[in-house]
Amino acid sequence: MTFKAEIDIMPLEALLDPQGKAVSQNMGNVGLNEITNVRIGKHITLMIDAETKKVAEQKTEEACKKLLCNQIMESYDFKLTEVK
User: Fold this and answer.
1) 54 pLDDT above the threshold of 90
2) Greater model confidence, 50 or 84
3) What is the Cα–Cα distance from 71 to 2, expressed in whole angstroms?
4) How many other CB atoms sit within 10 Å of the CB of residue 5?
5) I want to staple 39 with a disulfide (CB 3.0 to 4.6 A). Which of 13, 20, 77, 82 is the partner?
6) What's the predicted TM-score (pTM) here?
7) All structural domains of the chain
8) Cα dist. 15→7, 18, 39, 51 in Å?
9) What DSSP string runs through 13-62?
10) For 12-26, what is the HEC assignment?
């Protein structure tokens, strides 16, 4: 079976997000004063060949923890869907 993992990685809430802060401060310059507290992260998609959804979840967790996410500064969440 093949699964598509969609992973969102965001800076931890307790940490400063300089890129998000810069975007927030400039929203007024483009007429979007109502938008505040922007936080910018990463969205990663990948394909996994696995026997079951549980195995695909384990592989996605492993990829996030070992390579994709710096857990000292970031958190992650993901969604798996079976590709037919």
Assistant:
1) yes
2) 50
3) 27
4) 21
5) 20
6) 0.88
7) 2-83 (3.30.1280.10)
8) 20, 9, 10, 38
9) TTS--HHHHHHHHHGGGGT-TT-------EEEEEEEE-SSHHHHHHHHHH
10) CCCCCCHHHHHHHHH
